[in-house]
Amino acid sequence: MIALQIENIKNFMDKLLLKPVFDHYRVSEATITTFTTFTVDGLLHPEFYDPETISPSEETQVSWESIRSFCLSIFRGKKLPLAFRFVFQLPNADLPGFLDENGLMIDPADVFGLYLNIQYRNNTLTLTTGSSQHVFPGNRELDHAWDQHIRDFLTREELD
Q1: Is 82 helix (H, G, I), strand (E, B) or coil?
Q2: What is the pLDDT of residues 71-105, one digit of tens each?
Q3: What is the C-alpha to C-alpha distance for residues 110 and 35, in angstroms, rounded to an integer?
Q4: Of the candidates 14, 2, 27, the residue with the CA atom closest to the CA atom of residue 158
Q5: If pLDDT is split at 50, 70 and 90, which confidence band does 10 have?
């Protein structure tokens, strides 16, 4: 797990809310505090959709792409939110490729999730990484690979 403080908050927020940079990630949780607190649990309810309009998926959470405009509407206005927290997760479909690319001999079924936490409070924007496994890992290889993946992502997207 790593914790990183984002210096250029405006640039980060533009890419988070206005561009598709994070759209691929799934949302485990979203909380935005303005005049009240808005909370999204991120759970996907496929029964809401017509069966013809949604394809079967192993994903159980909504994508950032599907709720980004909703979150943006809460951010609109002259004042910054008092606080917000987004917990993103690498999509389940991407997990086997991630493990292979990093040479990790881990069964994808043993990984509950790889997470990126984005938290804003007191004019400070902090990112933390995390992982969760169904079994005791015995080492930190998965954490180190995920940490490096996020560092590379931030560099590639010019998010500092």
Answers
A1: coil
A2: 999 987 777 899 999 999 999 999 999 999 999 99
A3: 41
A4: 14
A5: very high
Angstrom distances, CA of residue 77 to CA of 35, 84, 105, 140, 144? 12, 15, 48, 43, 39
Radius of gyration over every alpha carbon of the chain, rounded to an integer in angstroms: 16
* pTM, full prediction: 0.91
pLDDT digits (tens, 9 = 90+) for 118-143: 999 999 999 999 999 887 767 889 99
Closest CA to 72 of 26, 40, 25, 41: 40
**Cα–Cα distance for residue pair 91/24, rounded to 1 Å:** 8
User: What is the distance between the alpha carbons of residues 152 and 160, in angstroms, rounded to a whole number?
Assistant: 11
**8 A C-beta contact, residue 44 and residue 62:** yes
Which tokens go with 63? 């994508």
* Residue 35, CA distances (Å) to 2, 8, 15, 32, 45 in order: 31, 25, 24, 10, 28
